[in-house]
Every structure is written in C-alpha cells, then in structure tokens.
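Let's practice the habit of predicting before peeking. Look at the sequence and jot down your guess about where helices and strands might fall. Then scroll down.
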Amino acid sequence: MSDLLERLRGRCWRVTSQRRVVAEVLDGDHVHLTAYEVLARAVRRLPEISRATVYNTLGELVSLGEVIEVSMDGRAKRYDPNAHRPHQHLVCSGCGTIRDVHPTGDPLADLPPEERFGFTVSEAEVTYRGLCPSCAPGLPHV
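Done guessing? Here is the structure:
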C-alpha cells in the first residue's frame, strides 16, 4: 500500500476505488504530476474515472494537507505527495522536471535578523533551479 494511502486510511478518509487510484498514481518519492497527468494515469487504471473526480480529489488532498500543490513560474500546478517529509525542490529551467532534495542546514537560520523586517518567520521555501542532464547534454554534472 502506498504511503499516501496509508496516511489517508489513518485519517479515516473514505477510500473509494476512484480515490484509491488517484492516491496510487501520486505514490512515490519524486512524484510531481500535473492534474492532467494524474487524470491520464488514473484513466489507464480505471477507465470510468471522471475528470471532475480526479480534480476534486486533488483539491481535497491539498485541503487535508496530505498533498502539496507546487506552482512553478507560470507552469501548470503540480502535486507532491511528500507533504510530511521536509524537503525543498530542484527544478529544471528547461523541461520543468522537479526533484525533491534534502539540503543540510536550516533555511530559517540562514535569514539574518536584520533581513526579517520584524516578521516572525515560521517556514521557508527554497527552490534550486538549473538544467537537468537531459536539457544540458555535454555539460559536466556535479
């Protein structure tokens, strides 16, 4: 059973066959699918699933805090099921591929007090950008 599905069952979320398929499609460490990609994969598993069901389920998963909605520079929103594992994102500026990364250090501690302007900072989102190996052939990859 997927990690997401286990978490949802632990919350007593009503697991219908349609909801299960959406949760199974979202399972994985580096999954960042668009709603359209979730729909396409769900239809392959359960042909009778509707667009509305997929979109409504995604919205509910985001509202529950079980999936993170990731917006990147005007591209389609993506859905990240790793909502309970602290991480940042590495994004390819070429193709839009997103990978979860776990940098060392605390990004909150990296913001000096004089740069907080009186804010009480509770969280930080860091996005690393560059080109993936497919978009930058021939460049050394460190």
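How did you do? The longest helix spans residues 51-64.
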